[in-house]
Design brief:
single chain, 362 residues, seven-stranded mixed sheet, six-stranded parallel sheet, 15 strands, 23% strand, globular, disordered N terminus
Amino acid sequence: MSSTLRQRDGNGARRPVAVLGATGAVGQTFVRLLENHPWFELAEVAASERSAGRLYGESVRWVTAGQMPANVVDKKIVMCDPAAVSSDIVFSALDSSVAGDAEMAFAKAGKLVLSNAKNHRMVPDVPLVIAEVNPGHLRVLESQRRNRNWRGGIVTNGNCSTIVATLALAPIHERFGITEVFVSTMQAVSGAGYPGVASLDILGNVIPFINDEEDKVESELRKFLGSAEGDEIVSAPMTVSAHCNRVAVESGHTVCLSVRLRERANAEEVKAALREWKGADVARGLPSSPAKPVEVIDAPDRPQPRRDVTRGNGMTVSVGRVRPDTLFDVKLVAMGDNVVRGAAGASVLNAELMLNCGLLPR
């Protein structure tokens, strides 16, 4: 963990924030997670011109967990335009078809964008961050601002299945090093947004293709586990091969992993590393931090989405079936909430981390 990241000396005031793409499924999850947040106040909700000017409660079909928060029902939706949004901290749930240019416009306007979109994740000077895994990557924000001559910035969270896989692999990579990974995912339909996959396509079926997903897993995992060197992030020198599948599960992505280690270790040693791992010190004790970012389950038939997806309020990744691998060294199964830990919750936790380290606009 970089010594450049420090603990905050906050005055207790809640910081106003905005959500872009607030009417969609991930945007709704941002709205839900920000309700009564101790550090952030949801000041503005933004969406396309079709919704702008209307009240949120009248425009949104609520499809995420729980009820629509009362404090957002009567908020007027504004345009996804920096001129219409006054908050300096912006959570982006925009679709990738529009996120690229829109997020850059907000950063140019001096706003800090915490993005759930794929557009900027693999740019070398854009931090791709899991708070407990690689907070030191945030230091490249300085070079991003210098390179683009803007006062704001863009920080991204990863693809939903990659976040689950990375949290399971980070303790292993830190302890033993990883050279090769085989990944096979079973991804819930909620990962496709709303309305998502047609029922006649997914019920009683497995779809062995998710557009762009395998490329994202293979590239993002290496960047997460890479290092900040000078002005950019250098991906970890490992080989990753991914198969991604959509399955008839509502929430919770399951990821099967086979791993070749740089330093030999048996399954029990790998399991011990997973149990002992707590993540970066600076990411502990934040409002959205789970007590255990990774939790090992010993039951032979776990983790399961139906039974384990809500661990840590959806922020804990459950790991089980850690055992020897006949092809590589060890294999295991990881599962996590794709909408909370894999999307909106990851961005909120990144914002908490940045506030804790004095990296948000003042």
